[in-house]
Structure formats: C-alpha cells, structure tokens
Amino acid sequence: MPSLSQVYKDQPLTLPNPIMDLTRMEKVPDSHAWPPLEDYLDDVPSKDGIIPVISLSEPKLAVMNQVSRACKTWGMFQVVNHGIPMRLFAELESLGHQLFGLPMEQKLKALRAPDSISGYGVARISPFFDKMMWNEGFTVVGSPLEHARRLMPDNYDRF
C-alpha cells in the first residue's frame, strides 16, 4: 500500500486562485458564491441545528456507536469530557489567531505544494465541490517546525 505522501505526489492538487485574500475583496467572485443555506436544509438530519455531542465518559461501545451515527448523519460532532485542559484550547486558539492573522504575503511563504501534504492552502477536498470554499487552512503532518520558521521567523518555537 502506498504511503499518504506518495498518494499526494501521485495525485497533485491544482486549483485556480486557491487562496483568496478576503481583506482585499470588494465583491464575491462567482467561484465562491454558494447557494443560500436554506437550499441545503433538506439534507440536514435535524433542522434544529444541534450538532451531536459525545461524552468520552460514556462506555466505550456507546461512544463508538455515537461517533459512527454522528459521522453518518452529520459528518461532525463535538467531544466533551475528554480531559484536555481548557487553557490548552485557549493557547491553541491564540496561536491560530496569530497564524491566520498574518499578512497573506507571509502565509504564502508556507504554501502547500500541489503534490504535498503539509503547508498553507485550501482543503484537498475542494475539487469535489462546485464552488470554492471560504476557508484557508494549514495542514501539518509531522513536525510543523519548518513551516512555522517560514511564517514566524522571530516566534516559531511556540508551534
């Protein structure tokens, strides 16, 4: 079986204008104009909009069944009672704000190559949709040190 990095090398991702600088836009380009949310509501399992919450304090089999059901119906879920300190979440959120708050020119220094796993860019699932996603991401496989050094040369050690 080929490694994940080999799969990415064999199937490079090439997208037109993959990163949009939202701070400089005056109008939403057609490539990013999605239909209104109401058009998707028939596909939502629960119109009340409550994403499944899974507690890791439940028995293992119950958790596994809840994760399976949530993935099949929602494609996402929230985990509670996981034991991770809230201060760690706060620190990660702060680092995320620092990372994505960098100027576009700085973020592009860590741009993911089309045949790479790690780096800054759009999600590799983007080609499966008719419209481009309104997001930016930073995928890290292994150590983020080299990318962090390119992005924040004076403060990369926090990553």
TrEMBL record:
<keyword id="KW-0408">Iron</keyword>
<dbReference type="Pfam" id="PF14226">
    <property type="entry name" value="DIOX_N"/>
</dbReference>
<dbReference type="InterPro" id="IPR027443">
    <property type="entry name" value="IPNS-like_sf"/>
</dbReference>
<feature type="domain" description="Non-haem dioxygenase N-terminal">
    <location>
        <begin position="51"/>
        <end position="147"/>
    </location>
</feature>
<dbReference type="InterPro" id="IPR050231">
    <property type="entry name" value="Iron_ascorbate_oxido_reductase"/>
</dbReference>
<keyword id="KW-0479">Metal-binding</keyword>
<dbReference type="GO" id="GO:0046872">
    <property type="term" value="F:metal ion binding"/>
</dbReference>
<protein>
    <recommendedName>
        <fullName>Non-haem dioxygenase N-terminal domain-containing protein</fullName>
    </recommendedName>
</protein>
<dbReference type="InterPro" id="IPR026992">
    <property type="entry name" value="DIOX_N"/>
</dbReference>
